[in-house]
Amino acid sequence: MALDRFSLNQATVKYASLETAVRVTVDAGIPSIGLWREPVAEFGLEASARAVRDAGLRVSSLCRGGFFTHVEGPDRRAAMDDNRRAIEEAATLGAPTLVLVVGGLPHGSRDLVGARSRVADALAELAPSARAGGVSLAIEALHPMYAADRAVVSSLSQALDLAQQFDARDVQVVVDTFHIWWEPDLAAQVARAGRGGRIASYQVCDWVTPIAPDALLSRGYPGDGHIDFAAFTRLVVEAGYAGDIEMEIFRQEVWDDDPTVVARHAAATYEEHVAPYL
Questions:
Q1: Domain boundaries in the chain?
Q2: Mean per-residue pLDDT for 102-111?
Q3: In the chain, what percentage of residues exceed pLDDT 70?
Q4: Mean of the pLDDT values across residues 138-158?
């Protein structure tokens, strides 16, 4: 039962094909997988849905939508159309959640307030499509170091302020240990997310120092870094979250490793550092 809620996010085995990712997930005894749009597109949407279904896996989420902070114009329209396609893909794959990385500042802009307001506008535009597809839009707050280029939503509090403008069936949040473990009011914000039924996904990986030259690659297996997974997981459990728990690791050494080894080690670290606190 230790792995019954565990999901291997496809980014953790970045260089594996979808077919290989599915195989190593099953072989490691992991019942769920988090998918990414690019390898799904490479393998084929219908073929991917069939491969996951035939393997008996759940799909915990699809990553990613978002990047819709552009001012109104062709770039914003293209982004919104792409997000509608992402919602359709999630529905086809059986993913209950589309993870949103909202985007950073548009090129040449310093208007952080305006960029955040356009996130709310985008959610309002996309929420009806999400409802029709039976998919929740899950805002992922990214660490503040990514505010300029990846996500102007930098805290769980900000993500919840946005989400609570919409029906909880349509817009929720991602609780990602790497991005929000440092937040001073973490306990209060996780509890707030739980009270509102807003936690769409719990993602786990560790914060490892020294920070890599590409800070995006400073993630590690639970136990490799500085995050207290016992305390963090208890917060999520106390908030009432009962869904899948994804391990999503961006790290060159992990990507370069044999995906079979990665999947098994991911399962082992989840069993040691997360599962006992559920």
A1: 6-277
A2: 96
A3: 100
A4: 98
User: What per-residue confidence (pLDDT) applies to 1?
Assistant: 74
> Could you tell me what percent of the chain has a pLDDT over 90?
100
Domain 6-277 indexed as CATH 3.20.20.150: yes
What is the pLDDT, as a whole number, of residue 269?
98
Beta-ladder partners of 36:
63
Could you identify the residue written with the tokens 């660490």? 143
Question: Is 244 in contact with 6 (CB distance < 8 Å)?
Answer: yes
Quick one: which of 92, 34, 89, 91 has its CA closest to 61? 34
Is the pLDDT assigned to residue 34 strictly greater than 80? Answer: yes
| Residue 142 token pair | 């990214």
Amino acid (one-letter) located at 200:
A
| Three-state SS letters, the chain | CCCCCEEEEHHHHCCCCHHHHHHHHHHCCCCEEEEEHHHHHHHCHHHHHHHHHHCCCEEEEEEEEECCCCCCCHHHHHHHHHHHHHHHHHHHHCCCEEEEECECCCCCCCCHHHHHHHHHHHHHHHHHHHHHHCCEEEEECCCHHHCCCCECCCCHHHHHHHHCCCCCCCEEEEEEHHHHCCCCCHHHHHHHHHHCCCEEEEEECEECCCCCCCHHHCEECCCCCCCCHHHHHHHHHHCCCCCCEEECCCCHHHHHCCHHHHHHHHHHHHHHHCHHHC
pLDDT at 172 over 90: yes
The mean pLDDT value for 86-110 works out to 97
